[in-house]
Specification:
By secondary structure, this protein is mainly beta. It has a single domain, classed as Nucleic acid-binding proteins (OB fold (Dihydrolipoamide Acetyltransferase, E2P)). Strands 1-2-3-5-4 form a five-stranded mixed β-barrel. A hairpin with a 7-residue loop joins strand 1 and strand 2.
């Protein structure tokens, strides 16, 4: 079943999870990916915590339909936070929030998130 925005949904459940490359330019979305990096603000700046999320596919892979978007990263920003528990490089997570554009790249502010897996440290 598809809603008017074109996303596929199962009756009684939320929207289908998609990759970062398949996110809409704007609007509500659910996606999954891996945290590539995190940014901590200095104490003298306004508090926010951000992470860059990438798809789990190898770099350079084409998205559905064979067309690669000009961006393959999603910036996730938690306002008013200096740290978010469990959010660190290598973690796989599912995000649910509103996608917007910041400096020409997709971004989500204060999304709901679920940690799917963590990278094991040896």
């Amino acid at each position: 079943m598809a809603d008017s925005a074109g996303s596929t949904a199962v009756p009684g459940q939320g929207p289908t999870t998609q990759g970062v490359r398949d996110l809409p330019a704007r609007g509500r979305a659910v996606c999954s990916g891996f945290i590539e990096s995190v940014t901590h603000q200095p104490p003298s700046e306004q508090p926010f915590f951000s992470a860059v999320v990438v798809d789990s596919v190898r770099p350079g892979a084409a998205s559905a339909g064979g067309v690669r978007k000009p961006y393959d990263r999603l910036r996730v920003i938690w306002l008013g936070r200096t740290r978010v528990p469990g959010i660190e490089a290598g973690v796989e997570l599912r995000l649910d929030g509103m996608v917007t554009q910041v400096d020409g790249l997709p971004a989500m502010f204060n999304p709901r998130y679920e940690i799917l897996s963590r990278q094991e440290h040896l």
